[in-house]
Specification:
Blueprint (H helix, E strand, L loop, with lengths): L2 H14 L30 E12 L5 E12 L2 E10 L14 E8 L9 E10 L9 E12 L2 E11 L10 E13 L7 E10 L9 E13 L2 E12 L5 E12 L1
Antiparallel strand pairs: 1-2, 1-12, 2-3, 3-4, 4-5, 5-6, 6-7, 7-8, 8-9, 9-10, 10-11, 11-12
Length: about 260
């Protein structure tokens, strides 16, 4: 099935879902707007379309614009997703991922948070080589921990990606660690806005490269019960010479 056919089928199914569904600005999904995500899926029976635009400005090399889109569906304790990211030249999104690659994912929540125990989630994501000059199927496994401290929530993401179709000198696997927090502004009276930030590190794409280290900050704001707007920016302040000096993102999540 082509990406266009799959997206059309999901959108059609979304139109048949409950019109009363809402989306929560406190729910954190990767890329909306940071790489940080929490251990909770969207509500069971809910559909969401998440789309945005971003720009990456390199210390060396060409800058690029990116246009991600993803469709999500919630089941009991489970979130399924399908999406892609289109990019201007150069076509690498996050090496070796290329513009137009199809990503499918499943996020499973293992437990609800208690007074002493954080919430745990696991995520499986598969990147299919449907994009420009792309090759190899890449698989990422991620563990997610979320723990609340009053209204402040802390989040830890630990991921490892198994890479295929890599070239000479490139890694065939790499890890990523993300540590961050989110805080709803205006609680308990008006909680329409959530501030979030993280610090991350990941292995460079080539063997021998030093780890990339960066920070991100962002905001999610509830425009309507079904629409959340987000915006974020970040920088990679340590790592290879061709790391990103600045990246920015903005977009919306629409619930059905």
């Amino acid at each position: 099935m082509s990406l266009r056919s799959a997206a059309a089928a999901l959108v059609l199914a979304a139109g048949l879902a409950s019109p009363a569904a809402a989306i929560d600005h406190k729910n954190l999904d990767e890329g909306r707007p940071l790489r940080l995500e929490d251990a909770y899926p969207i509500a069971s029976g809910e559909w969401a379309i998440e789309a945005g635009v971003g720009g990456t400005f390199q210390r060396r090399g060409a800058n690029r614009a990116e246009f991600p889109i993803e469709i999500l569906y919630g089941l009991p304790n489970l979130q399924l997703g399908i999406g892609t990211t289109l990019s201007t030249s150069p076509r690498e999104i996050d090496e070796p991922s290329k513009s137009g690659d199809l990503q499918v994912s499943a996020l499973y929540n293992l437990n609800q948070e208690t007074l002493t125990l954080p919430a745990f989630g696991v995520k499986l994501a598969v990147n299919l080589p449907t994009g420009v000059e792309s090759s190899g199927v890449d698989v990422e496994l991620k563990g997610i921990v979320t723990k609340s401290f009053d209204r402040l929530s802390g989040h830890l993401n630990v991921a490892y990606e198994f890479l295929n179709g890599t070239g000479p000198g490139e890694r065939d696997g790499r890890y990523e660690l993300v540590l961050g927090a989110s805080y709803p502004v205006g609680a308990p009276r008006h909680t329409r806005t959530t501030l979030l930030g993280d610090i991350f590190t990941e292995q460079g794409s080539r063997r021998g490269d030093s780890n990339i280290v960066g920070v991100e900050v962002g905001v999610r704001h509830q425009l309507t019960p079904r629409i959340v707007w987000d915006a974020g920016l970040g920088t990679e302040f340590a790592g290879p010479a061709d790391r990103s000096a600045l990246f920015v993102r903005t977009g919306v999540s629409i619930g059905f």
